[in-house]
Structure formats: structure tokens, C-alpha cells
Design a protein that fits this description.
Blueprint lengths: L2 E7 L5 E4 L2 E3 L11 H10 L5 E7 L2 E4 L4 H10 L11
Antiparallel strand pairs: 1-4, 2-3, 4-5
């Protein structure tokens, strides 16, 4: 089973598909392979007010992580343990 990451707007619950395009179904959303890729995309496109959602089969869950821990993980080439939210 493939795990994917999607971006969900907190306020509306809709998923990011493309610039100025939001969809109601997560399966139609833009997907990322991991948290780091999704976080970098949010930063590069100045997106905020979003949740990173892990999609695995029919199950969805919000991912919690600390952006500072993610930055440290990049430098150390280790995986950050998830603990705080959002992009």
C-alpha cells in the first residue's frame, strides 16, 4: 500500500490540487512522497493555513511535526519524529 502526503486547507477542509485550485476529494489532490517535500513546496509557494495529511489506502490522518526538527533532520540526514502541526 502506497503512502502519500496531501495538503488540506484548515479553514475549508479542501485539498490543494494546483495554484488557485482546491478539490473536495483527497484522491484528486496534488501528492507528495514525504513530509520534507510537502513542507518545501509550502515554503516555496508561500502557502499557509494547511495541514499535511497522510493518505494510505482509505485512511487519512493529520501529520504532526516540528518544522525546526525537520530542518535539523535535513542537516543530520536523519528522520525527524513527528510532534507538532501544519505548513
Amino acid at each position: 500500500m502506497q503512502v502519500r502526503i496531501v495538503l488540506r486547507e484548515k479553514k475549508t477542509g479542501r485539498y490543494y490540487r494546483d495554484r488557485d485550485e482546491w478539490v473536495s476529494n483527497a484522491y484528486d489532490a496534488l501528492t507528495f512522497q514525504n513530509i520534507l517535500e510537502a513542507e518545501e513546496f509550502c515554503r516555496h509557494h508561500a502557502l499557509s493555513g494547511l495541514q499535511l495529511i497522510q493518505q494510505s489506502g482509505f485512511f487519512f490522518r493529520s501529520l504532526k511535526y516540528r518544522p525546526a526538527a525537520v530542518a535539523t533532520a535535513r542537516r543530520d540526514s536523519t528522520v525527524a519524529s513527528p510532534t507538532a502541526v501544519s505548513c
